[in-house]
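Before the break, one more example. Copy the sequence into your notebook; we will annotate it together after we see the structure.
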Amino acid sequence: MQIQRKTLAQEVADRLIEGILNNDYPVGEKLPTEPELMKIYGVGRSSIREAIKILSIKGVLNVHQGLGTFVVSKNMQESLESQMDKAQIGDVQEVRSLLDSKIAAKAAFFRSKEQLKNIKLYLDLRNRLAEENKILECYHADINFHVAIAEACGNILLKEIYKVASSHILRSFENSHTDTESFKDSQDIHNRLYLAIENKDAENAAIIAQQIVDRIY
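Here is what the structure looks like once it is written out:
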């Protein structure tokens, strides 16, 4: 596997963490200003801002508009993605299965015409690849169909959790199918899910999404 080089922003984030752990930047205190940090670390404004964003997501920094950036913790919160990396695949599947019906119902209510078009694109692609017995490609299309629904649900947190869970399931399952028969058999129920979302029938979309989950798990 190719070793990924750190970005400037990540290097700055690492240096900031080192400074926080060494009490150069004590908890509760404000970080130096952007121009000062640029001078300290010898990088541009964009790298400083991205580093601060990285550490804000990890729960180390808190940005207060007009006041500055404050150190709030020495303990980095583990990202959702890294936690799922360590989780059993069954736990990840359970997370996704718990979300499916809720996401489908919200997608039926909030989806835009453009998002509906994207859902249909992956639905049709799933069908074509299943007929051509292209196993891996078909599985990708299936996952993308469901992720496209999540992207239409109108809830950013639900969408991101679902996308992370789906990507982990994809990596685990992409070599587990020997043919596309199960995808052919389930195409009709996926068509019905699409129609429920198209018709803005949230109740039916939730029921059908749960039926799909029950078939899989």
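The radius of gyration is 22 Å. Residues 21 and 74 are 6 Å apart (CA to CA). Try to locate both features in your own notes.
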